[in-house]
Amino acid sequence: MRVYFDYNATTPLSGESADAVMRATRDIFGNASSIHHFGQQAKAVMDDARSAVATLVHAEASEIVFTSGGTESDNFAIRGAAEALESTGRRHLIASAIEHEAVLNTLRALARRGWRTTMLPVDQSGIISPDRLREVIDADTALVSVMHANNEIGTIQPVAALAAIAHEHGALMHTDAVQSAGKIPIDVRTLGVDLLSLSAHKFNGPKGAGVLWIKRGTKMQPTVTGGKHERNRRAGTENIPAIAGLGAAATLAARKMTAEAARVSALRDRLEAGVLRDVSGTVVNGARDPRVPNTTNISFERVEAESLLIALDLDGIAVSTGSACSSGTLEPSHVLKAMGLPSHRTQNSLRFSLGMFSTEAEVDRVLEALPRLVDKIRGLSRKTALA
Amino acid sequence: MAYSDKVIDHYENPRNVGSMPKDDVNVGTGLVGAPECGDVMKLQVKVNPLTGIIDDAKFKTFGCGSAIASSSLATEWLKGKTVDEALAIKNTDIVAELSLPPVKIHCSVLAEDAIKAAIGDYKKKQAAEGKTAEKVAQPTA
């Protein structure tokens, strides 16, 4: 049995989504901008998907802009808002220190071009305090970007409270909901944001399909310029198969969300409790509540995370250290670092993220392997000096 | 990042894991790395006083698969070598043997440092031992 507990990196396609991608690939080839029959077929597929995503996040279909994925959506949200507001003199951008690189590096790129940027600090809970935002926001702030759920530890941020503060100061609010969309209920109006990013492949849809939800009336400068696609907001012939898959994934997620959240969180809790019970020197990183139902991040004392990751992989179990984008680098997790964890705990943490196809047998298989592999690795190093 | 078959082999079946008595004059101990950097390597050699050849080598490593493989390989290579031959082992030899990717070259550097530290410790002990032996020898001379 091979176990995949790395759903926050990406998820397997659901059957429904795979079928939708296949059908659109095989049967629909028209350009959705064409007026003739073939074009209108493609447009119909896209309209259905747009409605499905709108339903998932309680938005209007006309507010949904299809993109190539979460990274493009984050880029569009930040660059598009910053550039649209540039003439107003608002040249200050705020994001949390635990954002995904798609947000952090976009802010850095704008900082090099003269925008002022501020990172909101976070404590060991991994939750951004609205008070921190109050301290740094000012009349020049154009945009505040705080993720809905963190990809590494799963904590859910108080986005509605942060959005209220942003609006008090006339700033826009963006949330990267890539790790929460499809897992927990999202209502864009309740969240109170102006911009929201999501990505299909994080909830059993295909890669290469994402959405930026843009609240009606929000002025945005397109970052991909060209034709009049997506109501002049994002140019380029639409990727109909991927969008069809995104639509099917959104429909499935909306239908099964309540049951799946309960099922997956029970599995996650069983895994977490089992690890804490069966492996000495383990601790969960970040607040356990509020957290998305599928994620746990655990530090293993006296274990180097990558070593354990490889041992698990050789044993047929796939997990991750930090975010997949940064594996291959030697940098410890910027999220755990921002939370103020000591260096050894940023080097010895593993993320387990479950999902649609996870089973209790898989959890028990991991709980069987972990104590054995941790013992083996601890046997390779000296007992002292390493906490 | 893909690990080479040789790294995985050393990782799954590490050679010469363990410790030797630090106080033994024929044992040299090298401890390198820093916990905050992620890797700590302890490497020991035991030199046969009659032949000057490294009879035994042991390691304990806290680190990733490449760090463990680098130290395991180093202990394999050290056995049967003279002290001077051991000092000729270069990190680039380890990189080549294990096909380490660029981001893991520091693991091989750590292994070379550990060898040098262990041999250095052995030589220091031998020098001190020599002096003690002379002092002990003097009265009878």
Q: How do the helices and strands line up, and which of them pair or pack?
A:
The complex is a heterodimer of chains A (387) and B (141).
Chain A: E1 3-4, H1 15-27, H2 37-56, E2 64-67, H3 70-85, E3 92-96, H4 101-112, E4 116-120, H5 130-136, E5 141-145, H6 159-168, E6 172-176, H7 188-191, E7 195-199, E8 210-214, H8 229-232, H9 240-278, E9 282-284, E10 295-300, H10 305-314, E11 317-318, H11 334-338, H12 343-347, E12 349-353, H13 360-379
Helix pairs in contact in A: 1-9, 2-9, 3-4, 9-13, 10-13
Chain B: H1 5-12, E1 27-34, E2 39-47, E3 54-62, H2 65-78, H3 83-87, H4 91-98, H5 105-140
Antiparallel strand pairs in B: 1-2, 2-3
Helix pairs in contact in B: 1-2, 2-5, 4-5
Descriptive overview:
The complex is a heterodimer of chains A (387) and B (141). With 387 residues, chain A is of the alpha/beta class. Chain A contains 13 helices and twelve strands. Chain A has helices at residues 15-27, 37-56, 70-85, 101-112, 130-136, 159-168, 188-191, 229-232, 240-278, 305-314, 334-338, 343-347, 360-379; strands at residues 3-4, 64-67, 92-96, 116-120, 141-145, 172-176, 195-199, 210-214, 282-284, 295-300, 317-318, 349-353. In chain A, α7 (188-191) links the parallel β6 (172-176) and β7 (195-199). Chain A is globular and about 65 Å long. The model of chain A is unreliable at 323-329 (pLDDT under 50). Chain B is of the alpha+beta class. Chain B is 50% helix and 18% strand. Chain B has a three-stranded antiparallel beta sheet with strand order 1-2-3. The longest helix of chain B is centred in the C-terminal third of the chain and has 36 residues, at 105-140. Chain B is elongated and about 55 Å long. The termini of chain B are far apart.
